[in-house]
């Protein structure tokens, strides 16, 4: 028998050698790509690290501008004379709830900023408790999620600084804004019971769907809690919301109006109701919303 290797053995050895060479080449390419990736990441960090603070400051400045503009518009709306002076103006139900009958003739009415001052201790206590561990088994209409300190700060200013009528910076997403609104609803429920109804304004059905899911999750609600005769009503158009709020006031109830962060223009009649919370979005959030929808 001949000692020369068979043709099959030669071909297998050759194929194995080629595979090993190819593996070594691929490993070398991987090492080069990993080095290039590290270099690119270092370049990105060095290029944009100094710009992030400037971008954040510009966004914060724009939010502050929107909040201030809405507050000024609310003050201007209060000063607009919509009916002749000789016609008696029907007092707001909020004034009737807050004022003491025996002192109404001797004490001046509360200003908007002082409307919740008598309940300041309760409001601060509830906001502090909302920052603890979430209570997933709380009763319906009680907050079941944990509220971040920033959201608690916004609500404290809204209740005690703005008297329940004003704009606050958006938390960055609709779900987080729904959590802030849910915390406000939980506190208002303790203060007014069933005498108020929440009206949410967002101009897209998809956005209203996000609000419904967010509030339903945060407050332990069912789908039956969202509707014309329920605790929360969703609106795409401001005129329908205003009509509903007017009917609530005629029945002696309080409308609590929540305005989505994408609503860049708010009708003046909305600003004249006793309870409204508008979220002011920053430029980046508005840009993301426009790209998404």
Low-confidence stretches: 80-112
- Categorize the overall geometry: elongated
The spatial strand order of the largest sheet comes to 1-5-4-2-3
Structural domain tally: 1
CATH architectural type? 3-Layer(aba) Sandwich
- Provide the CATH top-level class: Alpha Beta
Sheet-strand content, in percent, reads: 5-15%
Largest sheet: 5 strands, parallel
Whole-number mean pLDDT: 79
Q: Quaternary state, please?
A: single chain
- Report the radius of gyration as a whole number of Å: 30 Å
Number of strands: 5
The SS-based structural class is alpha/beta
Helix content range: 55-70%
Counting DSSP H or I runs of 4 or more residues, the number of helices is: 9
N-to-C SSE string, H for helix and E for strand: HHHHEHEHEHEHEH
Here the CATH topology equals Rossmann fold
- CA distance, first residue to last residue: 80 Å
Task: Give me the secondary-structure topology.
Blueprint (H helix, E strand, L loop, with lengths): L6 H73 L13 H6 L21 H11 L18 H13 L3 E5 L4 H19 L3 E6 L3 H15 L12 E4 L2 H13 L3 E6 L8 H4 L3 E6 L2 H10 L1
Parallel strand pairs: 1-5, 2-3, 2-4, 4-5
């Amino acid at each position: 028998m001949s000692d020369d290797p068979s043709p099959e053995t030669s071909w297998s050895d050759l194929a194995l050698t080629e595979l090993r060479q190819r593996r070594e080449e691929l490993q070398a390419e991987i090492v080069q790509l990993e080095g290039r990736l590290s270099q690119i990441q270092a370049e990105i960090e060095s290029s944009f690290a100094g710009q992030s603070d400037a971008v954040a400051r510009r966004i914060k400045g724009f939010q502050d501008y929107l909040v201030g503009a809405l507050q000024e518009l609310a003050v201007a709306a209060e000063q607009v004379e919509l009916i002749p002076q000789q016609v008696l103006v029907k007092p707001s139900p909020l004034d009737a709830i807050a004022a003491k009958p025996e002192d109404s003739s001797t004490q001046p009415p509360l200003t908007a900023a002082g409307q919740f001052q008598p309940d300041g201790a309760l409001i601060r206590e509830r906001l502090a408790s909302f920052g603890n561990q979430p209570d997933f088994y709380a009763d319906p209409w009680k907050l079941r999620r944990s509220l971040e300190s920033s959201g608690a700060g916004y609500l404290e200013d809204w209740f005690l600084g703005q008297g329940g009528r004003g704009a606050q910076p958006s938390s960055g997403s609709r779900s987080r804004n729904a959590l802030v609104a849910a915390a406000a609803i939980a506190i208002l429920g303790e203060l007014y019971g069933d005498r108020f109804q929440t009206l949410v304004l967002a101009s897209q059905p998809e956005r209203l769907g996000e609000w419904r899911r967010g509030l339903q999750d945060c407050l332990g609600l069912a789908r039956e809690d969202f509707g014309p005769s329920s605790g929360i009503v969703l609106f795409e158009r401001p005129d329908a919301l205003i009509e509903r709020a007017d009917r609530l006031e005629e029945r002696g109830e309080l409308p609590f109006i929540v305005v989505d962060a994408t609503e860049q223009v708010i009708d003046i009649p909305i600003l004249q109701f006793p309870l409204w919370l508008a979220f002011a979005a920053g430029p980046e959030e508005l840009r993301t919303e426009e790209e998404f929808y």
